[in-house]
Structure prediction request, 127 residues.
Amino acid sequence: MVNCQSLILVFIAAILSGCASPFFGGYGPKGQSRKDFARYVEHVFRLQNNITSRVMMMLESESEIKNHDALLHAEQEMQKVCSPLNEYASRDSEGLSVGLFLQRRVESSAADCEQAAQTVKSLLEHP
Prediction:
């Protein structure tokens, strides 16, 4: 009985630490390896940061933007959807702890963040 309880505790600890993800199909919606998923998340972070910078530059310019309201709405939605990723990056760059729940929120929102960034990018490229 003690061995069974020990195995259950090890399994629960593995699930809580995130180590069990590969047993259930990997990381993210595509079931990537941890390393590949980390690269993907970094790509998404850079993409949405680039898009945010482009929106800010466009809004600061004197040029008239035909789809101004749609662009602002899409950019605000992107910021909302990408907030776990931005929080993670901010905490990581400041050397602060990034907890398991934040890691899971990033994992579950990365694809939506990428899609939101692509939507804003499309609006920027086709005003």
